Amino acid sequence: MTDGDPVLAAGCALWRRSPYGDGGVEICLVHRPKYDDWSFPKGKLKRGEDERSAARREVLEETGHHCLIGPRLPTARYVAGGRPKQVMYWAAEATTGGFTPGNEVDSIIWLPPAAARNRLTQPRDRTLLDALLEALHVA
Questions:
Q1: How far is the C-alpha of 31 from the C-alpha of 105, rounded, in Å?
Q2: Residue 11 in contact with residue 51, Cβ under 8 Å?
Q3: Which among 2, 13, 22, 37 is most buried, taking Cβ atoms within 10 Å?
Q4: How far apart are CA 78 and CA 125, in angstroms?
Q5: 105 with 65: CB under 8 angstroms?
Q6: Where do the structural domains in the chain lie, given as residue ranges?
Q7: Considering Cα of 118, then 71, then 89, then 98, what sign does the dihedral take?
Q8: pLDDT tens profile 100-115
């Protein structure tokens, strides 16, 4: 990898059916204390790891939840730490698991879409949220 090569990462827009039985969905956001931001679970690919496996691993590491990977969402491209970064995303439904705080992610929150939109730190993540809701056919 050279300085011009993008850092490759993968993640998921993790969602679950609302526990209130109203037919809605909730979106999982992670808080990373290093950046003091709210975003979707994501992380760098390990050597030899494919993108879907990395996305699934990152969800489990950062949220404690297993998930069912769904449709592919738009790839985010931006500069981080002076290097181009490319994050491939999927929609993913949370299945089993539970969160344990760690150094990288100290808390998660499950929010309805409008509240998630307001909590997200980066505008590019709001675009990803829109793509998730479109994929789920949620208004």
A1: 6
A2: no
A3: 13
A4: 12
A5: no
A6: 7-136
A7: positive
A8: 999 999 999 999 999 9
3-class DSSP state for residue 134? helix
| pLDDT averaged per 10 residues in sequence order, the chain, 139 residues | 81 93 92 97 97 98 98 96 95 97 97 98 97 91
Residue 109 CA to residue 127 CA, distance in Å, equals 19
Determine the residue type at 75: T
- Cα–chain-centroid distance for residue 114? 16
Instruction: Locate 54 and state its tokens.
Output: 């990395």
For the domain made up of 7-136, the CATH class stated in words is alpha beta
Residue type, 52: R
| Partner residues linked to 30 by β-bridges | 39, 108
Question: Which candidate, 70, 78, 93, places its Cα nearest to that of 125?
Answer: 78
CA 94 to CA 113: how far, in whole Å? 15
Question: How far is the first Cα of the chain from the last one, in angstroms, to the nearest whole number?
Answer: 41
For residue 45, give the nearest of 18, 74, 105, 5 by alpha carbon: 5
pTM for the full predicted model:
0.93
